Amino acid sequence: MKQLDEATVKQVKKNIKLFFNLATDEHINEGVAWYTKAFIEAKKISRRHGYDTYKVAQVIAALSPRNRWEQNLKDADKVCEAHKESIHPTDIKVCTFHSNKFKAFNILNNNVDITEKSLKTYNFVQNIAYLSRDHVTVDIWHLRACFKDKIKIDNASVGKIAYGQIKDATLEVAQEIGIKGFELQAIVWLSAQSYFSKTTN
Questions:
Q1: Which of 24, 130, 143, 193 has most Cβ atoms within 10 angstroms of its Cβ?
Q2: Could you give the CA distance from residue 59 to residue 101 in angstroms, rounded to a whole number?
Q3: Helix H segments across the chain?
Q4: Burial 172-187 (b: 16+ CB within 10 A, else e)
């Protein structure tokens, strides 16, 4: 998916609104609070181990693939503590891939940063570390909400231009509703998970 035509962008906006309207009160309350809670957790880890919040947010993002959120935070805390104590990556276990664990250590070693080349992860870091109103984490659940049955989980590659269009569409809908872009994304994430779990069972 490299670039969306005008009609598709309009449909994406309609679908985002649809999934917002499908959200329960619980989805809305949880979604609005999600990134603020994530920021607070990143701040706690940063203070506990002496790293700045942006570094910790990058570590969290690096450790996030195939990792439940609660475990993701525990693993980020474990990696920061191990790095501070000069413990080697091979001497600790986390619940994601080995390459991501080593990446987290390399972030703390200032050898690597999550850049805009990794669009989803970079936006996720900005949302957690800064509660940025200008960034949107477009992950598989957001894509499924945007395109409904037209996108498959195993074929969800999004190019830079299309990512920007989806992000802008989300921010525009959020402005219409009167909430922040990352709040809308979190609500839609919960709503989409609920919707697709029902339709696939």
A1: 143
A2: 9
A3: 6-22, 25-49, 53-62, 69-84, 98-108, 119-130, 140-147, 160-177, 181-199
A4: ebbeeeebbbbbbbbb
| Residue 121, both tokens | 């992860």
> Using CA atoms, how far apart are residues 96 and 38, in angstroms rounded to an integer?
19
Ordered mean pLDDT values, 10 residues apiece, the chain (201 residues): 94 98 98 98 98 98 96 98 97 97 98 96 98 96 89 70 97 98 98 86 53
DSSP 8-class letter at 91: G
Two tokens at 2?
A: 């490299």
For residue 36, give both structure tokens. Answer: 């603020």
Q: Which residues contact 127 (CB under 8 A, 6 or more apart)?
A: 35, 38, 135, 136, 137, 182, 185
CA distance 87 to 16: 45
- Phi-psi label, residue 147: left if phi above 0, alpha if psi -120 to 50, beta otherwise: alpha
Residues paired with 155 in a beta bridge: 152
Which residue's structure tokens are 């999934």? 19
Q: Are 185 and 136 in contact (CB under 8 A)?
A: yes
Structure tokens at 61: 């993002």
- For residues 72, 78, 80 and 81, what is the CA-based torsion angle, rounded to 10 degrees? 160
| Residue 107 pLDDT | 98
Write the secondary structure of 139-168 as one string of H (helix), E (strand) and C (coil).
CHHHHHHHHHHHCECCECCCCHHHHHHHHH
